Amino acid sequence: MSERSDPQSPDALRSPTVDQAGKRKWIYPDRRSGRNSKQRGWVALILIVIYLSAPFLKIRGLPLVRFDIASGIVYALGQTFRFADGFYIVFVLLSAAMLLAWVTSAWGRIWCGYGCPQTVFVEWLIRPIEEWIEGTALRRRKNDSLPLTIELFAKKCLKYLLFTGIILVISNVLLAYFVESKVLLSWIKSSPAEEPSAFAIMSAVFLALFFDLVWFREQFCAFLCPYARFQSVLISVATPTVAYDYRRGDPRGKRDVKGDCIDCGLCVRVCPTGIDIRQGLQLECIQCMRCSDACDTIMSSLKREPGLIRKASKMEIDQGPIKKKFRVRPLILFLMFLSSVIVLSSFVLSRDALKVTMLRQAKSTFTVMDDGRIANYFSLRVVNQSRNEQLVKVSTKSGAQIICSLSGEHISSNQEVTGILIVLTDRQHPLSEIAIDVDDGATLQLALLHP
Ligand code: SF4
Ligand code: SF4
Q1: 406 near 382, Cβ under 8 Å?
Q2: What is the pLDDT of residues 108-137, one digit of tens each?
Q3: Which of 234, 260, 305, 355 has its CA at a distance of 20 to 30 angstroms from the CA of residue 376?
Q4: According to the model, what pLDDT value does residue 7 have?
Q5: pLDDT confidence of 348, banded at 50, 70, 90?
Q6: Nearest to 77 by CA among 345, 334, 336
Q7: Which residue, judged by its Cα, is nearest atom 6 of ligand 2?
Q8: 116 ligand 2 Cβ < 6 A
Q9: Predicted local confidence at residue 364, as pLDDT
Q10: Helices 127-134, 137-145: crossing angle, 10 deg rounding
Q11: Span of 33-37, 90-94, 98-102, 107-111 with lowest mean pLDDT
Q12: If you measure from the C-alpha of residue 448 to the centroid of ligand 1, how many angstroms do you get, rounded to a whole number?
């Protein structure tokens, strides 16, 4: 019986992985194979390949995905966004948030159970190794309660050795999402004395991942992940989630009771977050469907219908099979996601090849030259936002003379260059503004000062 069975009890608010004294209760989840776990296993395999290869893949010569901290550039699907271009970054983040909101509203917390790297690596790499070396949930629990023997010590050493190897690979791949592969390779090859700061970064990432995947595990989902908190506002009574069919299962019991649930507790024993789904949907549920597979094995051994625990909306559980209704909330969230993607794509596809910023040089006004002409000084910053090399041409049709340190310079894709622009005009020049044409048709209006 779960401590949450009485919603009025103070224990109802406490995570099932924490005891009354506030101490961590280690979870030893049992495993039962079933339709959902097979499906999840295949998805996890594909995702492990994607997560471990994505930072090394290229699309039209650019990284498929990288948040290049050193150069301040985000690469995504063949497009580049500079950290300074906050506008694009905001739309990228907005699109990602809208996608998550739409998926959650339509299909529940499917991301946590199937796609989240934390779940994928813990469930499909870390736990299977633990089970392979230390045995079943019962055996592992027993091992940890008994004094350490030589055999158990050897098993634990082997387990942590394998964890170390796997997490070394994962942590370096994680760094490849932020650092260019060539740089990362040089970090890996060099000794800590040669590259002390690189060694510190690599060690910190490795230790953080080791702590999370090996020890913290489900605590991350229950206490740190902000998405777990959002789910209650994103789902509705019509959203399919993992649910116990209480109308069919209750009253529970082993003998002489009418409900299908025999109160064997297997659904709780297999849960990686330690909850009892029969108490309703809870914050810790990552929608992994382990409980559903486990209950199906019990139902099949009793020759009863599977699906006592299944994916169903609260409405379906409360009212029985209902006609599928058109749902407005997922549609609105999908349209919001689509709009943000369309806005982002249209801005990205229509942006100029060269982004030019010109500012008057700090603390400068104008200078009257010996020949009577007036000089105005500007700082010029040019970013090549295209995928090809670009030639910078600075010219003016206003009759003024311009001297530009960048004119005629070739700049490669994503390169940023800065230079100086001097505008010389006659004292009698009628204009207080002149247009400077930069290659690719960009025209900038400059305010000129004069006596
Ligand atoms: S596994 Fe099924 S039968 Fe067993 S306690 Fe859970 S819901 Fe009841
Ligand atoms: S309640 Fe079921 S679906 Fe939710 S985390 Fe536990 S085992 Fe997974």
Answers
A1: yes
A2: 989 999 999 999 999 999 999 999 999 999
A3: 355
A4: 60
A5: confident
A6: 345
A7: 271
A8: no
A9: 80
A10: 70
A11: 90-94
A12: 80
Burial label for 212, CB within 10 Å (0-12, 13-18, 19+), is: middle
Q: Model-level pTM?
A: 0.84
- Mean pLDDT along residues 395-412: 84
Confidence class of residue 356 from pLDDT cuts 50, 70 and 90? confident
SS3 412: coil
Contact 294 CB / ligand 2 (< 6 Å): no
pLDDT reading at 145 higher than 80: yes
Output the six-digit token pair for 114. Answer: 């199937």
Which atom of ligand 1 approaches the CA of 294 most closely? 1
Whole-number Å distance, alpha carbon 252 to ligand 1 midpoint, is 9
Given a contact cutoff of 8 angstroms between Cβ atoms, the answer to whether 354 and 395 are in contact is no
Note the residue count of the chain: 451
Torsion, Cα of 157, 163, 165, 167 (10° steps): -150
Tell how far CA 81 is from the center of its chain. 17
Give the pLDDT confidence of 186-229 residue by residue, as tens digits.
999 999 999 899 999 999 999 999 999 999 999 998 888 888 88
* DSSP H helical ranges for 108-149: 110, 117-121, 127-134, 137-145
Q: In Å, how far are 354, 409, 410, 416 from 84, measured between CA atoms?
A: 15, 23, 22, 12
Q: Is 384 in the pocket of ligand 2 (CB under 6 A)?
A: no
Q: Is 388 exposed, middle or buried (0-12, 13-18, 19+ CB in 10 A)?
A: exposed
All structural domains of the chain: 23-234 (no CATH), 241-312 (no CATH), 354-447 (2.60.40.10)
Examine the pLDDT at 86 and tell me if it is beyond 80. no
Amino acid found at 252: R
User: What are the C-alpha distances in Å from 335 to residues 1, 95, 115?
Assistant: 43, 11, 23
Token pair of 172, please?
Answer: 């370096």
358-397 pLDDT tens trace: 888 887 888 888 888 888 899 988 888 887 888 888 888 7
- Mean pLDDT over the full length of the chain: 88
Ligand nearest to the CA of 27: 2
What is the rounded distance in angstroms from the CA atom of residue 222 to the CA atom of residue 238? 24
Report the chain's terminal Cα–Cα distance, integer Å.
Answer: 87
Q: Are 85 and 76 spatial neighbours (Cβ–Cβ below 8 Å)?
A: no
β-bridge mates for residue 62, sequence order: 59
Tokens representing 252 are: 């529970």
Ligand 2 contact via 269 beta carbon (within 6 Å): no
Q: What is the pLDDT of residue 9?
A: 65
